[in-house]
Amino acid sequence: MALLKIRKFPDQSLKTAAAPVENIDGELNSLVDSMAQTMYAAPGVGLAAPQVGESKRIVVLDTNHEEPGKHLLKLINPRIVEARGKVIWEEGCLSVIDFSADVERAAQVLVKAWTPDQKEIEIEANDLLAVALQHEIDHLDGKLFIDRISRIKRELYRRKLKKMIKDGKADDRPSKVRI
Ligand code: NI
Asked: What percent of the chain has pLDDT over 70?
């Protein structure tokens, strides 16, 4: 296991749709475990493989950091099969430094995925877990939460980021819950 480097917007790897995993075998374990370790260390409640430069449809999630590891989800090729209702949630992201914004998502989702030990599972989720699942699956499709806010807000963030980088202030400050 190792801590992996989290790519930050506007890194190109975040804009690329990830490829489905075709063979679920033991070789994935070290990547998945390193992703989980990186997520807890960040800290964040979710991390998708493209965020660490791996173009694979793999996600780790844990919305309960009070008992780390107990509720850890390791999902391979996750997909949303049902979505209901609407919720607005203030989202942040480990790949988008120093910014959060309200994003509209489905309030409840049913997700199907595979686990690293080749079991097909279904997850019914609402609240933060539903939001986080949608946010992570977006990462697998090369999308960030800032692609789901208004263009003007996104432009303002781009400008702010440019200025932060120019001023040498683009350090990664932990802010809100980051997904
Ligand atoms: Ni994210």
From this structure: 96
